[in-house]
Structures are given as C-alpha cells and as structure tokens.
C-alpha cells in the first residue's frame, strides 16, 4: 500500500552544508582555472547552480557563468536547449548540475549537450544520488548517497513557494 508520508532526509541547514562542501570540491578540482561554467538543468539543477555560484563567489576569484540547460527527460533521444550559444562554452570547464541522480538519463542527456564541442573538462554535480542507474553515468560531486527502493520518490525543495529548503523521501 503506497504511503503519502513525507520523511525529511536533509533539513535546510544540512542542504546548505552539502552545497558548501560541493562548492569547495569544485574549487579544488579547478584550482588553476580562471573561469568555469555551471550548467544547471531546469528547474532544480538550475536553482542548485545559482546556490553553488553564490558560495563559489565567496570562496574564490573564479569567474563563474551560469547556463540554463533544458532537456526533454521523457524523450528516447536527446532533445535539449541552452540559453547561450553553444560556441560560448567551447574550451571551458563545464559543470553539469542536477538535483537528483536516479536512472542517469538526465545526466546522460545533459552531458550530450556538450559532446560536440571542444572542452577543457566536463564534470557533474548532484545533490542526491539514488544509484538506480539505467545509464552508465556517475556524478563527480555528490551531496548525499541515498539508498532507496524504486517505488520511493526523492523530492528536493530549493527556495520554492516559500517552503524551506529540504530533501524529502516520499
């Protein structure tokens, strides 16, 4: 029998701690870089990218550019759009960001957006990794590894509708 019970996994303080830690990991991985591009998958990946940018600006001198990545996650082929010309991402460090890694489809499609241009480096970030992969992808930077069953749903709330940040299992 399915339950509508919502279990808090990370509260707003813990979410921010995960974001801070990921920002430091990104900085360490790019210590010799002058500029990076944070490519956030709409909608929560983009919100997470904005939060990471805020922390990175406090702890580094990196020039940080935000790119919005829109994907059709239900398509059987790559259907995507970004809010800047793809040529502006050439020869840069790209960090693809999403809220939850479940099957890997979103990360795989997101990586596909940048595969036809030359890059310095391509990394991925997720706040929650559920490890139910159907695609051979993994995240380079992870806030929390969470063991769940397929029937469970993970919901990430980031500054939405006045609701406090949190990660919930439903």
UniProtKB/TrEMBL annotation:
Keywords: Glycosyltransferase, Transferase. GO terms for molecular function: glycosyltransferase activity. Gene3D superfamilies: 3.40.50.2020. This is Phosphoribosyltransferase family protein. Pfam families: Pribosyltran. Residues 9-155 form the Phosphoribosyltransferase domain. The keyword Transferase applies. The keyword Transferase applies.
């Amino acid at each position: 029998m399915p339950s509508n019970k919502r279990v808090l996994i990370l509260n707003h303080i813990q979410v921010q701690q995960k974001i801070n830690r990921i920002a430091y990991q990104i900085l360490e991985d790019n210590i010799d870089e002058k500029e990076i591009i944070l490519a956030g998958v709409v909608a929560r990946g983009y919100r997470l990218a904005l939060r990471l940018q805020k922390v990175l600006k406090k702890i580094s001198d990196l020039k940080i550019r935000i790119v919005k990545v829109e994907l059709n996650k239900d398509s059987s082929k790559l259907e995507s759009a970004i809010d800047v010309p793809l040529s502006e991402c050439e020869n840069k460090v790209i960090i693809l960001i999403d809220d939850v890694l479940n099957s890997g489809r979103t990360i795989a499609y997101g990586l596909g957006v940048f595969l036809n241009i030359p890059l310095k480096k391509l990394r991925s970030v997720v706040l929650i990794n559920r490890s139910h992969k159907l695609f051979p992808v993994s995240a380079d930077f992870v806030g929390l590894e969470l063991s769940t069953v397929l029937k469970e749903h993970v919901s990430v709330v980031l500054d939405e509708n006045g609701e406090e940040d949190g990660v919930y299992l439903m």
